[in-house]
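Figure 6 in text form: structure in, sequence out.
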């Protein structure tokens, strides 16, 4: 459908059917309530290892039990006209496989962060979506949060003078050794899981440009057994072409959630900065307050709009790939101890 035909019709478009792949914490706690209030999307199916769990969702959302799929039978979704979008919410190491299988079934794809666990995988997903003629978007919810939108608009337009420095952190205490602490399933540690938000925020402030170089340092492990094959905590610095520098950190053994930005003629401080709700923002002009929004409902509705108007999502495969390039460079810098270039 073209933008013209959407505008010409007075009838609101049919909400697009979304199938969630993976019914874990994020799907249950955030995407489920978002799908209850989304205007352009509705839950139309699930992919799960537990048929019984799927039945609870089918009952709640009123979709047919025929649209409950096991991970092994995602291909069967090709024959399900109720499903337009497949939303991948499984552990990071499965993002590429599940996204590619969704694309091959002819479905548009939303893939959770991190997009994949390597640049090579990102390329494979982008290629699969292009080959299938489907659109690709990411679970980059911050792009739909009013605080981050205002920050992006002010900093990219140099409204507060040229941004000079920023510092940001996202960290939480991870107990035990769940999949997030296992390289095989997570692809990396807190950088891959939550540090990616600071990477996104920094790029957002520079018009989605990537840094030109990074330096990084992995911190000594306090629980070497739990974090035997991923970092427990990491600090890194992103240098941008115009001189803007962002210092960042991510850890699985402390709590932190902030973003401070200094510009030539002003500043902004966000804390908490990256949460689903309750973000607080102060600037040199005073506090910035917004009506609460559901980031995930906005994110999914925006993608539905992109599909019906045949345009690219602002949070697309190229952006996810960019972040994988940056993350790989940060890990390389932590290993070599050198300043590593970021080559997109
Ligand atoms: P979770 O462990 O709660 O859920 C993962 C789901 O995947 C479970 O339903 C599990 O059964 C299923 N799964 C399928 N195969 C599996 C396997 N081999 N091993 C383990 N689980 C398997 O995790 P989560 O917190 O819901 O995270 C899922 C994804 O969502 C991750 O990629 C994470 O980065 C992303 N996420 C995004 C946000 C955000 O704000 N955008 C927030 C939280 C999580």
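Output sequence:
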């Amino acid at each position: 459908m073209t933008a013209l035909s959407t505008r010409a019709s007075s009838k609101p478009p049919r909400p697009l059917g979304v199938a969630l792949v993976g019914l874990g914490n994020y799907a249950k706690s955030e995407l489920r309530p978002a799908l209850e209030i989304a205007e352009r999307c509705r839950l139309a199916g699930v992919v799960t290892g537990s048929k019984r769990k799927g039945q609870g969702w089918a009952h709640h959302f009123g979709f047919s039990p025929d649209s409950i799929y096991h991970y092994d039978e995602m291909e069967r979704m090709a024959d399900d006209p109720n499903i337009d979008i497949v939303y991948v919410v499984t552990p990071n190491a499965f993002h590429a496989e599940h996204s590619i299988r969704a694309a091959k079934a002819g479905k548009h794809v939303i893939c959770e962060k991190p997009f994949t666990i390597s640049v090579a995988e990102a390329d494979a997903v982008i290629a699969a979506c292009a080959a299938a003629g489907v659109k690709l978007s990411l679970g980059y919810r911050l792009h739909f949060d009013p605080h981050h939108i205002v920050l992006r608009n002010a900093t990219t337009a140099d409204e507060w003078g040229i941004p000079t420095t920023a510092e940001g952190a996202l960290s939480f205490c991870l107990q035990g050794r769940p999949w997030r602490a296992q390289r095989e399933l997570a692809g990396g540690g807190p950088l891959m899981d939550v540090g990616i938000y600071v990477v996104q925020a920094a790029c957002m402030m520079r018009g989605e440009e990537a840094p030109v170089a990074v330096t990084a340092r992995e911190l000594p492990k306090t629980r070497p057994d739990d974090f035997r094959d991923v970092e427990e905590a990491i600090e890194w610095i992103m240098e941008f072409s115009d001189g803007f520098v962002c210092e960042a950190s991510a850890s699985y053994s402390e709590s932190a959630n902030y973003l401070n930005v200094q510009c030539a003629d002003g500043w902004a401080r966000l804390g908490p900065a990256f949460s689903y709700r309750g973000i607080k923002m102060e600037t040199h002009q005073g506090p910035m307050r917004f009506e609460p929004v559901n980031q995930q409902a906005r994110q999914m509705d925006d993608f539905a709009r992109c599909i019906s108007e045949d345009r690219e999502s602002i949070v697309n495969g190229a952006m996810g790939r960019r972040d994988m390039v940056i993350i790989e460079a940060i890990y390389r810098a932590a290993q070599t101890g050198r300043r590593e270039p970021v080559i997109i």
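Caption detail: Residues 1-8 have pLDDT under 50 and may be disordered.
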